[in-house]
Design brief:
protein-glycine ligase activity, elongating, D-amino Acid Aminotransferase, Chain A, domain 1, 18 strands, alpha+beta, Dna Ligase, domain 1, 4-stranded parallel β-sheet, single chain, 14 helices, about 20% strand, 8-stranded antiparallel β-sheet
Length: about 475
């Protein structure tokens, strides 16, 4: 039996297996995948397995991912979502293109006033905008879990703290390297005098032609441990991140007070907040808030669709943090590529497994339908994840990447297989395309496939020329 045939047999025999690597409550992921009757593999077999959940994207050997049958929980350059600086730039660029549309949501209506400190123009504009005693928050663009975030009122205070952090960086970088500042939302909506934000989710699924995006319609609240006070910049007052809160010595006795489900929030809202807002209907949290957050995520989806590298079988399950102010405006704080699955209180125990299960169900159903027939819709009804339709209002330029791995310690997703060839498939919708997309999008898809064919022919021509 030839090596190729032997490998093919291994691939076919392992197609319904799964592999989970890393921490972040990996057992919860295993519990969800066990429901699909997949076999779990502690070590990857020859040819790999169908479903791969790798906690850290930096551990992935992208050159070994097989998009013909594998599923992977990361998108190659998802930093366009999770990196705060890149996300701001993407939203700004999209904002400049679509501001004349009827359903346009102005950027300053959902993104706090933001300046990238390592951009000289932004830094100058920040100096002009800054007023003494105004409150700002400084964040590193590429870190999560609340690391190196601080609040300041004074420019000298900003410089001093950045100088302290800069001691650990390379000498060639400035103190402003990979930092941004945002105008602090000074009047957030409070629950029992405590600040909170909402953690919800954003799902992206890569097909060979495009990316499908879904907005979660629920989530949970993350509350600070102590009462809100603008005169005290204690991080346990202003940062609601569970990774920060759990470092407090009082967390074990207060952990159930740092989380709340949306249903519990709705009850609190109806009893204590809505009576003082006669223009707001009861059950605003359940009936109107999800739609507002979805509109924000819809704009996020449009802004990054032309940035993410499309490789069939990749998906991203992202954590989205939303702050509500005392006027009920919703503000996008950040998007996290590795949202915590640790359940530190009863609210998280109710919400996280439910949302993760819904996301995995949609990912597997979408890719199985697409790979078997090319037709995705209709998907099984989901009350938790809302599909964000494609739009033709923005130029979506897809590019096919070349993946090269230099680190021998990366996870080889298809052991025993030397190359993983990406197969370009049929258009996104085939049975009744007019029901979902218009002719312009179909023509764009056909043009894209023609460009891929020409690119392939050009590559062959160059190879022949080099040999001669």
């Amino acid at each position: 039996m030839s090596r190729k045939v032997n490998i093919d047999l291994h691939v076919n025999s392992k197609i319904n297996g799964y592999y989970v690597s890393g921490k972040n409550n990996s057992q919860l992921v295993c519990n969800q995948l066990n429901a699909f009757a997949f076999n779990r593999y502690e070590n990857l077999p020859i040819g790999g397995v169908k479903f791969n959940w790798i906690t850290r994207s930096i551990d992935i050997d992208w050159s070994t991912f097989d998009s013909n049958f594998q599923i992977l929980n990361h998108i190659y350059n998802e930093k366009h979502l999770s990196n705060k600086g890149l996300l701001v730039n993407n939203l700004r660029n999209y904002d400049r293109h679509i501001r004349k549309l009827d359903d346009y949501l102005p950027l300053n209506r959902f993104l706090p006033e933001t300046y990238l400190l390592d951009n000289i123009t932004d830094r100058i504009n920040f100096k002009k905008a800054f007023e003494n005693n105004s409150i700002w928050i400084c964040k590193p663009v590429g870190l999560s879990c609340g690391r190196e975030i601080f609040i300041f009122r004074d420019e000298n205070q900003l410089e001093n703290i950045l100088n302290e952090y800069h001691k650990n960086l390379s000498s060639y970088s400035t103190i402003y390297y990979n930092r941004l500042v945002q105008k602090y939302i000074e009047k957030p909506l409070l629950i029992n005098k405590h600040k909170f934000d909402i953690r919800t989710y954003f799902l992206c699924i890569c097909l060979s032609n495009d990316i499908l995006c879904f907005a979660c319609q629920t989530g949970y609240l993350r509350l600070s441990m102590y009462e809100y006070d603008l005169d005290n910049f204690n991080k346990f007052i202003h940062l609601t991140n569970q990774s920060i809160q759990r470092k407090n010595q009082d967390f074990s006795s207060m952990n159930n007070h740092t989380g709340m489900t949306m249903e519990e929030f709705n009850e609190y809202f109806n009893e204590f907040i809505q009576p003082d807002m006669s223009h707001i209907n009861k059950d605003w949290v359940i009936n109107e808030l999800p739609e507002r957050i979805t509109k924000i995520l819809n704009q996020v989806a449009y802004s990054i669709r032309n940035k993410l590298v499309i490789r069939e079988g990749c998906f991203g399950f992202y954590g989205v943090d939303i702050l509500i102010d005392d006027k009920l405006n919703c503000w996008l704080l950040e998007i996290n590529s590795g949202p915590t699955l640790d359940m530190t209180n009863t609210a998280l125990e109710k919400v996280i497994p439910m949302c993760l299960s819904a996301a995995i169900n949609i990912v597997i159903e979408t890719l199985e339908k697409y790979r078997s027939s090319g037709v995705i819709f209709p998907l099984a009804e989901s009350n938790l994840l809302k599909y964000l339709p494609l739009s033709n209002n923005f130029d979506q330029t897809h590019h096919i990447p070349t993946f090269t791995s230099f680190n021998n310690h990366l996870i080889n997703l298809t052991p025993g297989v030397f190359t993983s060839i990406h197969r370009y498939r049929r258009p996104l919708f085939s049975s009744n395309p007019h029901k979902y997309v218009d002719k312009a999008l179909i023509q764009k898809t056909r043009s894209k496939l023609s460009r891929e064919h020409l690119s392939h022919q050009l590559t062959k021509l160059i190879q022949i020329n080099n040999k001669s």
